[in-house]
Design goal:
It contains 3 helices and no strands.
């Protein structure tokens, strides 16, 4: 192994660290800025939590499950609304 190989490996590790601890948190925080109001969450808190290294990885799992549960709740509401509409007198049982 020569000196240039060591420099290449060091550069890869350096840019991996910069990306994981610098670029990704900034991208997550931008996403959280727009996502928080849709989930009725505190926008500044979500942006700060997305910026803190290590915390943001745990926070991303929390956000993933919160979004998943919101989607499932909305689908359940739609299903209940369609069931009520189909049960109305004079309904043909079709979803239009």
């Amino acid at each position: 192994m020569n000196f240039s190989d060591l420099q290449s490996a060091d550069a890869i590790w350096w840019w991996t660290a910069v990306f994981n601890f610098g670029v990704l948190p900034v991208l997550y925080s931008i996403g959280m800025y727009f996502l928080a109001p849709r989930l009725n969450a505190n926008r500044p808190l979500w942006v700060v939590l997305a910026l803190i290294p290590y915390v943001n990885w745990i926070f991303e799992v929390y956000v993933m499950f919160k979004v998943l549960f919101r989607i499932l709740d909305n689908l359940a509401e739609i299903k209940a609304m369609l069931a009520r509409r189909a049960a109305l007198p004079g309904a043909e049982g079709e979803i239009r």
